[in-house]
Specification:
It is a single chain. By secondary structure, this protein is α/β, with parallel strands linked by helices. It is 39% helix and 17% strand. The strands form 3 sheets. A 7-stranded mixed β-sheet has the order 7-6-8-9-10-13-14, sandwiched between helices. It has a 5-stranded parallel β-sheet with strand order 2-1-3-4-5, with helices on both faces. α1 (7-28) runs parallel beside α3 (92-104), α8 packs parallel to α9 and α13 (326-345) crosses α14. It is globular.
């Protein structure tokens, strides 16, 4: 999920990335030589301070856990792992400077993407110009995946345009007399959440999934990053008789909207916080009746027994979280891909590593995955719902512990 930003800021970030790319090419000279002894240096940046400090801190904890596990077991192909993670202060400009240093001064073997689309946008072309694969567990972006031409590999099993796909699939699987019939969408004006609503290249996105399900969108509004009062939006959704309410926002926004809907007596048959995870928030259990029945999405569920999920669940529980955060799962999965790829290819040479990655299947915390040509993985998603104060999976059928419950 991205830090909040405007379209103008987004364009400025991309422009800066282009300038930095020319500088990096001049400094690096396209040199992608790799060491064959000493530690394997894995570098990247995270917003350990600033607006993204919370999730970034959890990323760092996952990185440290994995590195300790690997080194305790003897390293990767006999080489210890050295993590070189720098603080980008949750800003793309700082991240650009740090990645240029990682490439030209630290000369790391492997590069991890930063957290958030906002910070990651200028990093994708910069890393590609440096001849490196960008291992991405930090964000989703169809557009950036396309632009990377296979040099960014991501472990998120659903992209920003696919966030609501599972919800519509779950609705279609419900008994006909319980299915909602009128869709309402409230969207943060942010490139990430707008793609969640509108899709990419005329496909996916909530509006297209609703159309394909034969459900009319009777309410469709946007709100700005500084909105704190959602009274008028909730009243408009009520007036439109919305019974499937999709909230496409960031965590704080989504919680605020859910509280406002509850306070105003707006209780559609189904509500989904479908722009970001809210059930992982430590404050979620304190939401009480406002949270009851709210749907959400996640990347994997512990009962699927994917490699590493048990350890991630233990960490989440120790942090007071009911559900493993999606970013913890995909971060760990990305590191698993790195380890298996280096062991399988027998090298950190980027061209040989890339060839190995696209030719093989990997056993990870998001399941057994084989990368698509654009560096994404095939779609997979779990829909969860808060029922009786507990978050449980309700779709797909092989993971569901409870049927989808409508508010009456």
């Amino acid at each position: 999920m991205p830090k909040r930003h405007t379209h103008a800021a987004h364009r400025a970030v991309v422009a800066g990335a282009v300038l930095t790319t020319f500088s990096l090419t001049a400094c690096a000279g396209g040199n992608t030589a790799t060491a064959t002894s000493g530690p394997i240096k894995i570098g990247g940046s995270l917003g350990l301070t600033g607006a993204l400090a919370g999730p970034s801190g959890e990323y760092k904890a996952i990185y440290d856990l994995w590195a300790a596990q690997v080194n305790k077991a003897g390293g990767i192909a006999g080489r210890k792992v050295q993590m070189v993670i720098k603080n980008d202060d949750s800003t793309p400009g700082t991240a650009q400077t740090l990645y240029q240093s990682l490439l030209t001064k630290d000369r790391v073997d492997i590069l991890l993407a930063p957290y958030s689309t906002y910070v990651g946008t200028p990093i994708v072309p910069l890393v590609r110009s440096g001849g490196k694969i960008l291992f991405n567990g930090g964000f989703t972006s169809r557009q950036l995946s396309d632009s990377a031409k296979g040099w960014m590999v991501g472990t998120y099993p659903y992209q920003e345009s696919q966030y609501t796909r599972g919800v519509f699939e779950a609705v279609k699987a419900m008994p006909a007399n319980e299915r909602p019939t009128r869709v309402g969408i409230l969207t943060l004006n942010n490139p990430f959440t707008l793609a969640d609503r509108d899709g990419y290249k005329g496909a996916e996105g909530a509006v297209h999934y609703a159309r394909d399900a034969g459900l009319p969108v009777v309410f469709n509004q946007e709100y700005s990053t500084d909105t704190t009062d959602f009274t008028s939006a909730i009243n408009a959704a009520k007036a439109a008789r919305v019974d499937l309410f999709l909230i496409l926002g960031l965590p704080e926004d989504s919680v605020r909207i859910i509280r406002a809907a509850s306070a105003q007596g707006f209780r559609p048959a189904l509500t989904c916080a479908c722009g970001s995870q809210v059930s992982t928030l430590k404050t979620w259990p304190q939401m009480g009746a406002a949270a009851e029945g709210v749907l959400g999405t996640t990347t994997a569920w512990p009962t699927e027994h994917f490699k590493g999920l048990d350890q991630l669940l233990a960490i989440s529980r120790s942090n007071g979280e009911q559900v493993i955060p999606s970013y913890a799962v995909v971060a760990y999965a990305g590191l698993q891909v790195i380890q298996q790829a280096i062991e399988g290819a027998g090298t950190t040479d980027q061209a040989r590593l890339r060839a190995y990655i696209y030719a093989h299947t990997f056993d990870t915390a998001v399941g057994r995955i084989k990368f698509n040509p654009d560096g994404t993985v095939p779609y997979s998603e779990v829909v969860v719902q808060t029922i009786g104060g507990k978050t449980v999976p309700v779709w797909p059928a092989n993971v569901a512990e409870h049927p989808v419950t409508v508010t009456k």
